[in-house]
Write a structure and sequence with these properties.
Layout lengths: L8 H7 L3 E6 L4 E4 L1 H7 L3 H4 L4 H5 L9 H8 L3 E9 L5 E12 L5 E10 L1 H13 L1 E2 L2 E2 L3 H15 L4 E4 L6 H10 L8 E5 L5 H9 L16 H4 L4 E5 L6 H13 L1 E2 L8 E2 L3 E6 L3 H6 L5 H7 L2 E4 L10 H16 L2 E5 L1 H9 L5 H15 L2 E4 L9 H7 L8 H15 L4 H8 L3 H17 L1
Parallel strand pairs: 8-13, 8-14, 9-10, 10-13, 15-16
Antiparallel strand pairs: 1-2, 1-5, 3-4, 4-5, 6-7, 11-12
Helix pairs in contact: 6-14, 7-8, 11-13, 14-16, 18-19, 18-20
Length: 445
């Protein structure tokens, strides 16, 4: 492509909105456009001739230089999130793309890098998270929106609530939200995991015992229903409740009374019951392992919590939420996650739902002390995804790996080329050339 003489090439580069600079083989800056001056706060005359690491002080200047990787491997890096440090100490989040510079003979003589200021995007993300937070539950998906819209009315009633959802969908968070939005908010919130305690211990935990009820019962002990008086009791994993206790719980729900172990007089109870399970209670009722009458008593109001697979649009919000939380808890300054990590998370299946996402980020915080969480900071549990999606652990030439990545992206997007271009961050012409090259490689096998 040629430019008219009245529009010098350098003027074109200076007019683009993204920062752009080039370096020679010794990492000395040889070009620095106006946007690079604005984003870094460094005039071009000061940057020219300096080593790029002395200008940017980026989170990759400690040995993970993107330009060096491009120059050494001859490849291209696109959309990698890092931060740079301005002379006044301000940390600026940017998205970078890098490629080697070649002379007419094809020899690598340096590198070129563009970078885009993500400050406004990060501020917008924080505002969006604040906007879409509801009682510590973060999300903007329609699946959650339906629950958010009815939760205040459900909470103000005294009806028993049954929360259904896969493990890790945040059932206790929703139970606490029901309590906090109810007229019982000033009373206690008591949580019991019905699947974590043996049957005999669970009964005494729920209903308490009287002195002499068993050998070691030296005195009276109140149960969780007594401790939750005037408030809410959350019975998690209700599907694991043994048959004997199902009868006792049914009496509590029907008659508002219970009997402690060793007791002879019914005790009145004043609690709101919220129950939860990740099991199919209707199937348990059908096979006789869960009482039908108890199921109907629990199933007054049922809220089905969506899995994370059903609300992928909430992953960026949840990610920002957990990063802010871990920064506060651990005293770190992690800026966020890189764009390639976000792309991976958006494609991950998340069998463990929100809890799995939180665990992934907690692990990443162990390896990442500042800057942006990169692919190498992620746990081994999602390494198979990395192998398919990011090319790690794949064998073959660079062209073969690129072809497999392109074909995988086309398959994920059901052959839609524009969607594939957006995912890979390439133009239509580039995709067309890559598909053509893949066909040539396949024909040559």
């Amino acid at each position: 492509m040629s430019f008219p003489k009245e529009l010098p090439f350098e003027d074109v580069l200076s007019s683009i909105a993204d920062g752009l600079f080039t370096v020679d083989a010794d990492w000395n800056i040889t070009y620095f456009n106006e946007a690079a001056e604005r984003i870094t706060g460094i005039p071009a005359e000061e940057a020219m001739g300096q080593k790029c690491r002395d200008v940017f002080h980026s989170s990759l200047c400690d040995g993970s230089c993107a330009l060096k990787e491009c120059i050494d491997c001859g490849g291209v890096i696109s959309g990698k999130s890092i931060f740079i440090v301005r002379p006044d100490g301000e940390r600026v989040p940017v998205s970078i793309s890098a490629a080697p510079l070649r002379n007419a003979r094809g020899d690598v003589v340096g590198g070129v890098e563009t970078f885009r200021d993500l400050t406004e995007l990060h501020l917008m993300r924080r505002k969006v998270e604040d906007l879409y937070s509801f009682e510590d539950i973060v999300g903007r998906s329609e699946a959650l929106g339906k629950i958010f819209r009815i939760l205040p009315q459900v909470s103000r009633s005294e009806a028993t609530v049954l929360l259904l959802g896969e493990s890790g969908t945040g059932k206790e968070l929703f139970a606490r939200a029901v309590h906090n939005l109810s007229d019982r908010r000033d009373g206690p919130f008591v949580a019991v995991n019905c699947g974590a305690l043996p049957d005999t211990l669970l009964e005494s935990e729920l209903f308490g015992y009287k002195a002499g009820a068993f050998t070691d019962a030296k005195g009276d002990k109140p149960g969780r229903f007594e401790l939750a008086r005037g408030g809410t009791i959350f019975l998690d994993e209700i599907g694991d409740l043994p048959a004997k206790l199902q009868v006792k719980l049914l009496r509590v729900l029907q008659e508002k009374v219970y009997e402690p172990l060793g007791g002879v007089k019914p005790q009145p109870t004043d609690v709101r019951v919220v129950a939860a399970t990740n099991r199919d209670l209707e199937s348990l009722v059908a096979d006789g392992s869960f009482r039908q009458d108890l199921y109907y008593r629990l199933n007054v109001v049922t809220l089905r919590l969506p899995s994370l697979r059903e609300r992928p649009e909430d992953i960026p919000l949840l990610t920002d939420h957990f990063i802010r939380e871990y920064n506060a808890l651990q005293g770190k300054c992690v800026e966020g996650i890189s764009e390639d990590v976000m792309a991976l998370l958006l494609r991950h299946d998340f069998p463990g739902n929100v809890r799995e996402l939180e665990n992934i980020l907690e692990f990443a915080f162990i390896l990442c002390s500042s800057g942006f969480i990169q692919l190498e900071h992620l746990p081994d549990s999602i390494r198979p995804s990395l192998g398919q999606d990011a090319g790690l652990g794949m064998v073959g030439t660079l062209e073969e790996i690129k072809c497999r990545a392109v074909m995988s992206a086309l398959e994920r997007n059901q052959g839609r080329k524009m969607a594939t271009c957006r995912e890979l961050g390439i133009s239509k012409d580039t995709l067309r050339r890559m598909i053509q090259r893949c066909d040539e490689l396949s024909a040559g096998e």
